[in-house]
């Protein structure tokens, strides 16, 4: 069975994440959500829904600040506060993805200190731009995927640098591609499932 890892960054966002969860549930697809901790704390019901639906929750920083603008103290607090707050939501975090994939001199040290594994991506389709229609996004996903690919999409929208409404295009694109990819023999797994079975 071929595998794909579907991941979502920058959420949760009450405007989009619930709609996304509905689509994933309808297609019986599990994903990993790299959440921004401050948004997660503000939307505990969405986090609970993710867990109930069998999705994995991972860390995407405290407030989506660029690592190159962050020194030692900020980076330390970013990890420490995030882990503490996510534990309050009963989330056991194993994986971390830095915003924009950017790291500073301290990122690797704190990732290791908190027993996290850094995970980047193989496929990105600029789904944060509203000019990219569902058809364009679906075509890019279909063209770029391969067995074992980690796909990075975004449900945060305008909260963290995306265009207003862009996640709605991404969600419609998923409705187009998920049945097709499953028909082609792909199984969707979480980051944890993927690495645990390597």
UniProtKB/TrEMBL annotation:
The Swiss-Prot or TrEMBL record annotates one GO molecular function as:
hydrolase activity, acting on carbon-nitrogen (but not peptide) bonds
SUPFAM superfamilies the UniProt entry points to? Glycoside hydrolase/deacetylase
Q: For the NodB homology domain, which residue ranges apply?
A: 2-189
What's a BP term from Gene Ontology annotated to this protein?
Answer: carbohydrate metabolic process
Pfam families registered for this protein in UniProt: Polysacc_deac_1
**Gene3D superfamilies, per database record:** Glycoside hydrolase/deacetylase
Among InterPro entries, the record links this protein to: Glyco_hydro/deAcase_b/a-brl (IPR011330), NODB_dom (IPR002509), Polysacc_deacetylase_ArnD (IPR050248)
Q: Please give the PANTHER family that the UniProt record associates with this protein.
A: 4-DEOXY-4-FORMAMIDO-L-ARABINOSE-PHOSPHOUNDECAPRENOL DEFORMYLASE ARND-RELATED, GLYCOSYL TRANSFERASE-RELATED
- Protein name, please? Polysaccharide deacetylase familiy protein
Please tell me the species this chain comes from.
Anaerocolumna cellulosilytica
Q: What is the lineage of its organism?
A: Bacteria, Bacillati, Bacillota, Clostridia, Lachnospirales
């Amino acid at each position: 069975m071929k595998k794909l890892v579907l991941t979502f960054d920058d959420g949760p966002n009450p405007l989009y994440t619930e709609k996304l969860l509905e689509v994933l549930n309808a297609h019986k697809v599990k994903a990993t959500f790299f959440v921004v901790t401050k948004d997660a704390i503000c939307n505990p019901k969405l986090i609970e829904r993710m867990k109930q639906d069998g999705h994995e929750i991972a860390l995407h920083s405290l407030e989506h600040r660029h690592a190159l603008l962050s020194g030692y103290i900020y980076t330390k607090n970013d990890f420490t506060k995030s882990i503490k707050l996510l534990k309050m939501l009963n989330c056991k975090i194993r994986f971390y993805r830095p915003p924009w994939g950017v790291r500073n001199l301290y990122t690797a040290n704190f990732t290791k200190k908190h027993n996290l594994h850094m995970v980047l991506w193989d496929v990105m389709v600029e789904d944060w731009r509203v000019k990219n229609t569902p058809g364009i996004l679906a075509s890019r996903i279909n063209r770029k995927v391969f067995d074992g690919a980690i796909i990075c999409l975004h449900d945060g929208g305008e909260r963290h640098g995306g265009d207003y409404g862009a996640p709605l295009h991404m969600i419609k694109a998923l409705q187009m591609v998920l049945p097709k990819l499953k028909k082609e023999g792909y199984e969707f797994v979480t980051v944890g499932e993927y690495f645990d079975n390597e």
